[in-house]
Design brief:
2 strands; mainly alpha; two-stranded antiparallel sheet; 272 residues
């Protein structure tokens, strides 16, 4: 299983690198849209729309929505994007409350509600990635957010295995521990410090950058926990079986759904 996971992960990383470096903006937008439409197809099942025609219909409507937003020029409307990312952040604060209270406070068994929630879950992350893609050649923003999410995941995995004792969210994801969470935070503090030194950041910029990266890393953990909560409520292990050893597409981008919009909001407010 571990070998399969590693091989699949290497293929995904290579594919993403080629996509970022070789594709035009329109090609990148199309590919990312396709990935998120597949994630929407998986989300439909998690929302309780389990019949094949329901999943296809949901994914098709989601694809039309993405096309409409793209061709409406939403990515050029900075103020609107800020409002969308801020709304995403507020939604994730509610999701944090839901994860904390689960299963005592449980409203996640209504397909119509979860169907609508899929737009909040996926669209801001899709917008954030498309917003940052033109800047890759100059600033590497997408590489940075991916590195933060991956570092949080890797640090949590190894520290959790070695030191994990106290459960982070027992009823949602029993395998996650507070020790693993803080290991992911520590790993990101180290990563952010190295990058800040490389960028020659000083004083409050230095501290602000590290704090921002830690918050993005924590958001990625929340995205993972939220998806785990929905899967537990539905009684399924993975969002699908499309990726050998990794489950589905949504299982791979669950951390992105919370981290990317926050990262994009920070960039729009302070990084330009």
């Amino acid at each position: 299983m571990l070998r399969t996971r590693i091989i699949t992960a290497c293929v995904l990383v290579l594919g993403l690198a080629l996509e970022l470096l070789e594709l035009s903006y329109s090609g990148f937008a199309f590919t990312m849209s396709l990935i998120f439409v597949v994630a929407a197809w998986e989300w439909a099942n998690m929302a309780g729309l389990s019949l094949p025609w329901q999943r296809v219909l949901y994914a098709g409507c989601f694809a039309l929505l993405l096309a409409g937003l793209f061709y409406a020029g939403l990515l050029q409307q900075v103020h609107t994007l800020q409002m969308i990312f801020l709304g995403s952040l507020l939604g994730w604060l509610l999701a944090l409350f839901a994860v904390y209270c689960y299963p005592r406070f449980n409203t996640w068994n209504r397909p119509w509600f979860l169907g609508l929630a899929g737009c909040w879950l996926l669209i801001p992350s899709w917008l954030g990635l498309l917003l940052m893609q033109p800047l890759v050649a100059n600033s590497g923003l997408i590489w940075l957010v991916i590195a933060v999410i991956a570092t949080a995941d890797i640090g949590a995995y190894f520290c959790g295995r070695r030191f994990g004792r106290r459960k982070l969210a027992l009823h949602v994801s029993p395998g996650k521990t507070w020790e693993g969470f803080w290991g992911g935070v520590a790993a990101n503090v180290f990563l952010a410090t190295v990058i800040a030194i490389y960028l020659d950041l000083q004083g409050m910029q230095f501290l602000g950058f590290i704090l921002a990266m830690v918050c993005v890393a924590a958001a990625s953990v929340l995205g993972d926990l939220f998806e785990s909560m929905i899967k537990r409520e539905r009684g399924i292990k993975d969002s699908s079986q499309l990726l050998p050893g990794h489950g589905g597409v949504l299982d791979r981008i669950d951390g992105w759904t919370a981290a990317v919009p926050l990262f994009a909001l920070i960039y729009l407010l302070y990084g330009r």
